[in-house]
């Protein structure tokens, strides 16, 4: 696989070609990835997968018209043909008053910070197999586990590079490790499934495979013999592995392109106290080894640590250059690039700061409520903020976990949910978006 220096050089060649052929401005993005994964099921090797891929995308501007195109052919002849096709497309495209590169005076300058995103240790296929086997064995050893959907282990390497025609040229490398296990507890109509999964930049930051497997087994067994529960307005407590979805909805509504389309429930509420004043949500793009850490955004702007929510208010909108121009809003360094096309918007590492109460203390005064450990369905309207999801979890009675519940629905409006949100003190920094256990009173639970 290519390194970051080679990726930058290829982008520079393509941008130079596009300018020579008539582009007023251009940028190019190279992405490369190699991954290997091993899956075990019932103690036997089920799948070994190895993949490698490289691609380069070009965006050209002719006046206020632009077009994007992508290829995996890195030959010079291919670059010339690619640039010519992109320019022909751009000349036929409608004018967009908001398109264009980010302002040159706002570009990232200086040395790329060392964010420790690349682990120098690459596990062998045999080591991946042993880790997957250990995870599954530990899950199957939990009393009550009856079947296995398998254990898996993987390792990946990636390279990203961006070059623009107005002076930006940088790239960086990263790695990823993951472990998972998924099992079934019970027999026949009693069967319940669950899993555990962890990912990290460095293998040393992952739990041991046995810990992953044992957690998957315990989760599945704990769900056996679920019941429904009465309907009504009740306190809902979100386990961290589903509570982070609430922050995901917030980030989606803070997206500049969504606001520009008038498809955000936060439109017109940027000065409102949406959360309790004690709530603070931070973004840390420079967190060492962070799953979404990045030294610069998808348009070459610097990324910065900031409070997304403080004193009850959001800081503003997450913007790329086009959204900032359309909204007449500040540039925030949130441009994101995928395989091709114009930049989108995405946040980096985000977490909600912990509160002062333990989980047990958070639920101690709940006479009747529910701890939600999984949600399903697509019942979230980011235009209105209406929230309705199918859910499974555990009933809370008199401040104690009273047994599993399933096939219930929880509903509310995200604005009201944010205002009522109370965090516990059990924050663990293990995902890209991290939250402690969260309590939201007054939601509607539909059960029996």
From TrEMBL:
Q: Name one Pfam family in it.
A: PmbA_TldD_3rd
Where the record annotates domain Metalloprotease TldD/E C-terminal, the positions are 232-447
Limits of the Metalloprotease TldD/E central domain: 119-224
| Start and end residues of each Metalloprotease TldD/E N-terminal domain | 32-90
Q: Where is the signal peptide?
A: none
PANTHER family referenced in this protein's UniProt entry, alphabetically: METALLOPROTEASE PMBA
Its recorded name reads Metallopeptidase TldD-related protein
Organism of provenance: Qipengyuania benthica
- Name the lineage: Bacteria, Pseudomonadati, Pseudomonadota, Alphaproteobacteria, Sphingomonadales
